[in-house]
Amino acid sequence: MLIDINAYVGHWPFQQLKYNTCEGLLGRMNKFGVDSSVISNLNGIFYKNTASANEELYDEIRSNRKFGDRFIPFGVINPIYAGWKDDLEVCVKKYGFKGIRIYPKYHDFGITDPACIELVKRVRDYGLPVAFNFRMVDSRQRSWMDIDYVVGTPKPEWNLKNILPIVREVPDAKYMILNFANNAALNDEEMGLVKKSNLLFDTSGRAITNMAEFIDRYGKDKFAFGTHAPILDYLTGQLRIESMGPSETDAQTKELLRSGNAKKMLGI
């Protein structure tokens, strides 16, 4: 079984996307043998009111029964937008979404902003995971209208150290950290925090150059298959798992990465 924990529908203003609807994404899933995908709506990154994007996603999934059987929807919440608490409640109680995605860089707040901490705590209390991205696209190829997060600027792309402060603030939450990019070096205290936290990385990010090495470093329970589709290609995240030979890992670990760890995180 394959569960993709990092996929999207919707539009990216600075890049033409293909397969960015439920119908298109489902075709890719069928082609590559993916059973279920965690999806959110890219439009929520750019709408002032993310509730509109969540409603779009809800309506699209309800438009066809097969979508509800294959997709696991996450809402997008901006905790510095008025009414976000009501938006969160709608996502969970009305729409039945299974997690929340947060975009501090795009919505312009710090990862330990009191509002962000409160949101993570509320998501935790619902028993759901909260997802953060290292980055959405490669900043070296960004549009001049995109956010300024090139390396060397006041707000460069994140590395793992930049995300860990929220884990320290709310250590008992469930986290999905996606599109693993940039420096992964941690000191002993930071590595200890990662290992004891309920935290899952996906396999889409370019920093994962040797999957077996990352499993040895972080643990086999810390990774799950993810594509970052349709922004990134659909195969790389899967190949990082399937390319490991018998000397690098065993069949049980591969099954954890394909779906076991995702099932545990998502409660399915």
UniProtKB/TrEMBL annotation:
Domain Amidohydrolase-related: 51-268
Source organism superkingdom: Bacteria
Pfam family membership, one: Amidohydro_2
GO molecular function: hydrolase activity
InterPro entries listed in its UniProt record: Amidohydro-rel, Metal_Hydrolase
Coiled coil feature spans: none
Keywords, alphabetical: Hydrolase
Listed name of the protein: Amidohydrolase 2
Originating organism: Pedobacter heparinus (strain ATCC 13125 / DSM 2366 / CIP 104194 / JCM 7457 / NBRC 12017 / NCIMB 9290 / NRRL B-14731 / HIM 762-3)
